[in-house]
Amino acid sequence: MSQLKSIQVLRAMAALAVMFAHLYSIEASQSGGDALLPPVFLAGFAGVDLFFVISGFIMVWVAGDWAPGKQSALAFLFARVTRIYPLWWLFASATAAYFWLTYGVPWDAPMLAQFEVSGPIHLLKSFLLVPHEALPVLTLGWTLMHEMYFYLVFAALLLLPQAYRGAAMGVWAGLIVIAMISGLTGFYADSILALIMYPMTLEFLMGAAMGALIKAGWTRYARSALLIGVLGFAVALATIDFTSLEDTLPIQRTLTFGIASALLVYGAAALERLDGPERWVRTRLVSIGDWSYSLYLCHILVISAVAQLFFPVFGAAGLIDNIAFLVIAAAASIAIASTTYALFEAPLLSRARTIRKRLFDPSSSAES
Length: 368
Known about the structure:
Elements (H helix, E strand, L loop, with lengths): L4 H26 L15 H18 L6 H34 L5 H4 L6 H10 L12 H17 L4 H20 L10 H6 L3 H15 L6 H18 L9 H27 L7 H8 L1 H23 L4 H41 L9
Helix pairs in contact: 1-2, 1-11, 1-12, 1-13, 1-14, 2-6, 2-9, 2-11, 3-5, 3-6, 3-13, 3-14, 7-9, 9-11, 10-11, 13-14
């Protein structure tokens, strides 16, 4: 299945949004409260919601019509495991090395002191992306736990005849809605059960529904969907507080940013199918979309490193200093992401694709 350039653009926007949210957080903490970026940049965390919707869309776009059976399920899982884990291990290891240099142990010792979990167990579960009480060693890994859960369930759905997969996903969505209504969901999925009931899984399923529509050739109301999605984001920006740690936050962002993201994904993909990507897709954003997973995982480390080197030398406040920090940190994050993609991620994915074709049906491809 051909790659949709509009989806790569949205991936780039999602990764950049999350990067700017962390730029704000780190700048605010390092600049003595005199941050140049306003707090509204915290809304960049909605890039995660967009990522979840895109993941659901791509899974259906790529594999939704695969023949039922074990070969399809295994080919799909192989593709996703080799896509997610190696790069995760690279940057999780880099984070562990940072903690080792800082605390003498390869984990965040002050944070783990709040939980009844040992450092080695925490590190093992972090690398395996298994939910537990503490956030993973690289905190962004909490989102990858949800990604891997979705991939596992979707792989199981590939065992079913294609005609039953939509209904199965509908049942899956219904169970999550019941959990939400029953108050069984929480702020953070700290267990397998909490992961299963987590509200933001609905965002994957929204994306899957949009993928099914586009795959079926439904492209009506593309511009209207895109416009409503943009307006939905604007409303959500005015209503969602990402500094809140209430259990209802995942529900709120699912019903606002999640729905808006689904409309954006549908509208963008439908427009590309109608008009082709040449009319409005920008090549540079497509490239950043290709690097988006590397950018997503590396940017906290890069921004933090730049802050550690920059602010002790140039001071904690001042307009020029803050502008220089933001430009250097953002540029360095994108440069590291592109380099990591070229030297590590792309070659590894190419090799994994070759192995997958030897092990499974060559027509089964889960490129994304």
